[in-house]
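User: quick one
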Amino acid sequence: MSTRTEVAIVAVAESDLGKTPGKNAAQLQAQAARRALVEAGLTLADVDGVFAHTEGIYPSLLMTEYLGVKTRYTDSTSAGGLSNLMHVVHAIAAIQSGLCEVALITYGSTQASDASRRLGGIPEDPRSPRSQFVTPYGQMTPLGYYAMAAHRHMYQYGTTSEQMAEVAVAARKWAQLNPKAYRREPLTVDEVLASPMIAEPLHVRDCCLVTDGGGAVILTSLERARSLRQKPVRVIGAAESQSHHFTPLGVKDWLDTGVSSTARAAMQMAGVTHDDLDVVQIYDHFTSGVIQALEDLGFCKRGEGGSFVTGGRIAPGGSLALNTSGGGLSYGHPGMFGIFLIIEAVRQLRGECGQRQVRDAKVSLCQGASLVFSAQTTLILGRD
Amino acid sequence: MSDRPLPMPTDDTKVYWESAKAGKLVIQQCSSCGARQFYPRPFCIVCLAEPMDWIEASGIGTIYTYTVNHRPANEFMKDKTPYVVAAIDLDEGVRMIANVVDASPGDVKCGARVRVKFEKASDEITLPQFTLA
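Assistant: Done. Structure below.
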């Protein structure tokens, strides 16, 4: 990136979180967008690129209308929970090529108030590949595939349910340090294992929460960022990969999620090694997925993720500061979590995280995943 | 049975579903490069040749991995819990999703051998399912 315009994140904000009855997804996104603009010292007139993702269609145009902005670049890339991370990559490209100057990225969902999370996934055309070859068998989407991958991980490497539960317990300990987290009461490994089984081997407490909420992230050139109100956070590395939709039958090794290639590429672009990563945000839809991602990110060898997470290594005070907001497992999960990975990483790098602040955090990695290990995005953020 | 989500075959999957109705499990094999693929598509996604040939599979395979659902994915599955959903690698080299039926979920393991069994789901649709071999 050194020869091109450098791009920075200049503002991050959440909407109201938890349960937000009486609001819709557009309102939550607009609320977060307003908070982010005010934080940066920008106005709606400055925004010329809108990137948005919700469960509805054409969300970036909805946000353009709702906020009354005139854009010259828009992007509704929809690839599941990591979509907002992809928007960051696309916003960088748009800014670098002069297609827009100030990019507003939003997400919002009222999934909890709507009680709209369906274990079978969003219904689709009965002629689609998934409807023909998966749905008749009562597979839960995405949960069923992560449960299957977890079983395979246990079979190949001896990973245990107790080790997976450690991920949920660590997330809860971080959440206890975050006043905005949805679930903050103590949680033990035994309580995770005693929580109702959903799809073996995953219990309720192995799964992300269902909440409402939204977020916004604003990017612009580093040069302009330096004239705004917040300390800029540079995007110093980024990489994406995609391989399938909801029917991963062409993927032979379900434990090879594509994370290793995006992580390698993004870290190479950023010129950083694992030792440089002060704080890490991994999309924690399911505890087992975090173990897999840690392996593929190279924090430990394949098969060693279970033992890696035991003994409090990823909890507050451990050697790896992971999912410091409490993550999708305990902070909140309004349908898609990608934007919240970015928000927490930026706040850590700006030193705003109070009790859960990682001391002198300079570099953060965000790892997004989506659907059924279908797409991956790695971002590396660094302090200016 | 009416609320069971069932496939609506298309012209590229019709042979698969009609064969299942006749008690045969068929998969596609490329007439040009020999690649096999599942699910069916109108051409070979390795070499782009069309049309694809259909071969009858042995119906024997291995459980790559599985889950046991304790909550139903839909209304129809409500009285079926706990039920097994498995990713099955056919000996012919393709992977498919099906239930492992007629087995106690506790007996299902990764690596277990399975054999196809056909389940009539409606007048039009028969689903390939698997039992422990």
